[in-house]
Write a structure and sequence with these properties.
Blueprint: E1 10-14, H1 18-24, H2 29-49, E2 54-61, H3 69-85, H4 87-92, E3 95-100, H5 108-120, E4 127-135, H6 137-151, H7 160-164, E5 177-180, E6 199-202, H8 212-223
Parallel strand pairs: 1-2, 1-5, 2-4, 3-4, 5-6
Helix pairs in contact: 1-2, 2-3, 3-5
Bound molecules: 3-methylbut-3-enyl trihydrogen diphosphate (2 copies) and magnesium ion.
Length: 234
């Protein structure tokens, strides 16, 4: 691969299209989600190979609670299973795992496993892997506002750095590149705050098929972008 002159420090992926991938193959949506979970491990490996320091994966939005019960239950069971079976692998790969999103709507069992996984991997330094689960960008901002109001800070203290500390995603760096699979070109309430100057890359490829070649394409595309942050062109 052509050497990358500019690598995104933080990639955030909207892992979309599991359902459509499955239906196309005559499988159930659940089988699509299972294939989607398996693909996470491959993509994490590719991200390590490419030297990506921060990877956030959107796995469940707060709007996804509107899906039918059996699909929700299955997605939660996959999260539960992954927390049991895969944390050791991430630990061995020197990956720090974090959950980003609302903790309190998840079962006590899952909340405890998240805590355990975060503690278990907290000293790892090669990559930060953020599992974005039960997250909505508007809710994140509203929840931050509520926490701040409770604290009654001096109004002059409130600037962007101050505000960010109250966000679920507060400790993450700004997003450089958002990748969305399966052809949709929308944010679906993902990182509203952290994506303020993110570059977008959308592909028709559905999440279970998003492989190393596709990841390379996204990185090469990112390399051609000119990020100006509102300044004049040179
Ligand atoms: C993404 O796949 C996974 C989640 C949103 C949980 P979808 O389930 O949205 O798949 P499509 O978009 O219906 O194909
Ligand atoms: C976005 O996908 C959320 C995740 C990938 C977790 P959706 O499938 O829920 O988004 P919409 O409904 O197509 O916007
Ligand atoms: Mg979808």
């Amino acid at each position: 691969m052509t050497p990358l002159k500019d690598k995104p420090n933080h990639i955030a992926i909207i892992m979309d299209g599991n359902g459509r991938w499955a239906i196309e193959k005559g499988l159930s949506r659940k089988e699509g989600h299972y294939a989607g979970l398996k693909n996470i491990y491959s993509v994490v490996n590719h991200a390590l190979t490419f030297g990506i320091k921060n990877l956030s994966l959107f796995a469940f939005s707060n709007e996804n609670w509107q899906r039918n019960n059996s699909e929700i239950k299955y997605l939660l069971s996959l999260m539960d299973q992954a927390l049991d079976e895969d944390i050791q692998r991430f630990k061995n790969q020197n990956i720090r795992v974090r959950h980003i999103g609302r903790p309190d709507r998840l079962s006590k069992n899952i909340q405890e496993k998240i805590q355990k996984a975060e503690n278990f991997t907290k000293d790892n330094t090669k990559m930060n892997l953020n599992i974005v689960f039960d997250f909505g960008g508007r809710e994140e901002i509203l929840d931050a506002v509520k926490k701040i109001i409770k604290e009654k800070p001096d109004i002059d203290e409130i600037n962007q750095e101050f505000f960010e500390e109250y966000l679920y995603s507060g400790q993450l760096p700004n997003v450089d590149l958002i990748i969305r699979t399966s052809g949709e070109m929308r944010l679906s309430n993902f990182f509203l705050w952290k994506s303020h100057y993110a570059e977008f890359y959308c592909t028709e490829v559905k999440w279970p098929d998003f492989n190393e070649t596709e990841m390379k394409k996204a990185l090469l595309d990112y390399n051609e972008r000119h990020r100006r942050y509102g300044k004049t062109t040179h």
